[in-house]
Amino acid sequence: MVDLRHAAAIVGIHEHVTRYAPDKSELQIQGESVIKALEDAGLTKPDVEGLFTASSSIRNSGLNLADYLNLYPRYVDNTTVGGGSFEFHLSHALTAIAAGRINCAVITYSSLARSGGVSVGTGGVGRYGHPRLDPSPDSFEEIYGLTTVGLYAMIAQRHMHLFGTTSEQLAEVAVATRKHASMNPEALFRSPITVADVVNARVISSPLHLLDCCVITDGGGAVVVASPEVARNCRQTPVWVLGAGEAVAHQGAGQRDLIYIAAKQSHQPAFAMAGVTHQDIDLAMVYDSFTITVVETLEDLGFCGKGEGGQFVSGGRIQIGGELPINTDGGGLSSNHPGMRGIFLLLEATRQLRHQFEGTPRQVPNCRLALCHGTGGALGSRHSGGTVILGRD
Amino acid sequence: MPEWNKPLPSIVGETRPYWDSCRRGELVIQRCASCHQYQFYPRGICANCWSNDIKWVKASGKGTVWTYTVTYQNRTHGFAQDVPYVLALVELEEGVKMFTNIVECNPRDVKIGLPVEVTFVPANNQVSVPYFKPSA
Description:
The structure holds 2 protein chains of 2 kinds. Chain A is of the alpha/beta class. Chain A has helices at residues 26-41, 61-69, 85-98, 148-163, 167-181, 195-200, 228-232, 263-274, 291-301, 309-312, 331-335, 342-353; strands at 9-16, 50-53, 75-77, 104-112, 203-205, 208-209, 218-226, 239-249, 283-286, 369-377, 383-391. The mean pLDDT of chain A is 97.
């Protein structure tokens, strides 16, 4: 394979810090984020050649966003594979830049899931009326009352059955991310919680409790990706895209064992491209729609053996100062989760690799390599997995 | 028949034999005549070898609970009133897994590995929905 390890870098980022924005449009949040991310990079509107976006609410989101921003991109990617879409976007932007098609791209996302009253996890197919179901797969699934939480809960139940994983172990993920959120002034929930708080919260879909589930917020953000030539003249330390892997997982026509998730397929290409090992990773930003998502993802990424995830996340290992800190912004469980969260993994990894929190407890010491893994869709039916490995010189 | 308040399947050519059989109280699945693999949900092609030589076969209607969740919150009309209900993946004796609800039992009695058998509930004159209940 061609060595792409210094072919593209994240040079600008912006997180729109709103968690509730009832008087804004989703396109406005994206527009404001793109402008601020370009400012962060020291770039301007004419530099933007590629536009990458995904949305579950904006129709033709790439087209409408280009219109809103009055941009004429010559490379457009609207890959929409759920919450992890943005890891796919970064992977694709790397390829487009390495091939010389473009020198600079922006990846952006926004959602008003909270102010819009969207029941992301427990909405099912229709709160006020039933849409016409697609002949397949919907007609074989939605008639049974699937919810997003339920599709993750089913995998949690199976994990507990096979490996003896406990609710207390799952709760460790929520406790760790809440501790990290307490250091993030923008996080939605910042008060520390205990394992007891999580396991005593009401059950949404067994075995998952309220605090095993991510929050629902508004929000958005943008990432600017550029070639080494452009990156050299940018204001910020470049964060290189060293490796990327993409995968989907599904029921396999009724034959697949979905206790193994897409991360199992996507991590090897990413590590191989980057030429690094698990021991080299200083920070893992792991999509945390639910606590079980983190346990499953860490296992199938290969940070521990299958079935050992419950043990692995316990005892402070995934907290800052532990062996593998994760989700240092507080994650989807505590900081923000506007419908799809994959872009925020890239934002926090970049902040940590820039050493933006140096001198504060939030900084992962000597952070040089970060892994981001986005999961989109649902573990129990079908989902995507995008792994990217980022690093600084 | 009381009005069905849950979503109904959309039925097209490749899935019609399945729903027709359900209406007669019989669960059928597909087996590829070329590679002999069973598959679920039904398709116009074999998902394994991409042959279009698909045969419908009568399933035993028996299986075990592969995994499940007791749902306490779903805002969808028809399910919101039904909580707590059991959403499950059942592994049929033929080896394929399908989504279903486990009915005619207390949710707390459902366990992974529980033997179950199919039972049909008519939604209207055209559609009967296959559910599973603990085996007698």
